[in-house]
Amino acid sequence: MAGGVRATCGGPLARxxxxxxxxxxxxxxxxxxxxxxxxxxxxxxxxxxxMFTCVVNNLGGYRxxxxxxxxxxxxxxxxxxITNNARLSVTHNDYNTWTLNIRGVKRxxxxxxxxxxxxxxxxxxxxxxxxxxxPDIVYEETSGDMMVPEGGSAKLVCKARGFPPPKILWRREDxxxxxxxxxxxxxxxxxxxxxxxxxxxxxxxxxxxxxxCIAANGVPPSVSKRIMxxxxxxxxxxxxxxxxxxxxxxxxxxxxHVEASPKAINYWTRENGxxxxxxxxxxxxxxxxxxxxxxxxxxxxxxxSNDLGGYKCISKNSIGDAEGNIRLYEVELxxxxxxxxxxxxxxxxxxxxxxxxxQGPLRExxxxxxxxxxxxxxxxxxxxxxxxPPSMFLIIALLHAAC
Length: 403
Ligand SMILES: *[C@@H]1O[C@H](CO)[C@@H](O)[C@H](O)[C@H]1NC(C)=O
Ligand SMILES: *[C@@H]1O[C@H](CO)[C@@H](O)[C@H](O)[C@H]1NC(C)=O
Ligand SMILES: *[C@@H]1O[C@H](CO)[C@@H](O)[C@H](O)[C@H]1NC(C)=O
Known about the structure:
Blueprint: H1 2-7, H2 12-29, E1 34-35, E2 42-45, E3 50-57, E4 64-68, E5 73-77, E6 80-81, E7 88-92, E8 97-102, E9 111-117, E10 123-137, E11 146-149, E12 154-157, E13 160-163, E14 167-172, E15 178-183, E16 186-190, E17 192-194, E18 197-200, E19 209-216, E20 223-238, E21 243-246, E22 252-261, E23 265-270, E24 282-288, E25 293-300, E26 309-316, E27 321-330, H3 339-359, H4 390-402
One 2-acetamido-2-deoxy-beta-D-glucopyranose binds at residues 155, 195, 197, 199.
């Protein structure tokens, strides 16, 4: 065998043989090209840059090629990009590392990538490029603000695109329950609901408010849309004290609770329908207690006999109107105390009044001490809480602080 080689030395067959022997030696010494690390899967958001790194030892005279496995397209051989894609490039660290760079990844770049060495048989490794897309609300297919009559139904729809397909979660902005009726379990209350559609049926006023649909697919940022649900209904007036007794000369506050949507116009009249306007005698106020309820207050100062009688609080909106009735009557002051003590307790009550005013405007004008509780209704036996101007609060607060 050795003699044969020598005999044909220099000929083309001999060169081939020598190459074959060298190759066998490489194999025997373990010097075949070899991948040092597996090619790693890459997950990247659309628009970002991706890279695959292929590390080949003992490459010898072989070449490294990058191939898109699904289309079998050869992307690059060594550092030379073959495919017609300006976003691709290959870098080589002059040793054993070959990197395929994909700039500004697009959805169509997704797929299996192969790093291949042209041995026989060829050696290769593959990895997957996943291109993800953060969620985005499809506004054309998503509900806008809605108005439904109370007792009606509302279908809230929220669509989002992205990859993987986003999940839609519904929540109420105020943290309230979403009430789902007509499901398999009948009526259920949940803090959040999953799915593109929320069917609200037999809607009540408590379901009014902002609903948030939140689309998320694990690719930041998540997005949300706020959908206002307005529930319309006829105004409702409730009167906590329909009979209010007070001694003449005192101030008294009349109150009505109103629920209405859309927002109502609220006003007070005397029994004969004469509308009450703010002046030295009367002061009116409204305090919001929720999105659709308001507390109406009417302060009548230093009541006289012509102030006694009927009062109406009236609430009107586009759906209808409602009224509440209050009757103001006179009560005799109980046997009066000696003058000096009276003055002192009156001052104490002034202070209490100021304190209670400072504690918040929602305080009711009803009896406030055990001593006062003998009076009926919302009348105050001593000067009732005044609608003290803010500057007065400040002065009084400063006086308190100074003491
Ligand atoms: C790479 O991604 C492919 C396709 O998604 C998957 O089958 C394979 O298990 C992944 N390999 C690794 C190491 O995560
Ligand atoms: C919502 O109601 C519609 C009919 O109005 C119905 O087709 C749909 O299945 C309902 N969806 C859910 C989630 O209950
Ligand atoms: C009450 O609510 C209405 C509308 O919701 C708002 O315009 C108004 O400013 C609120 N008033 C107070 C005192 O909060």
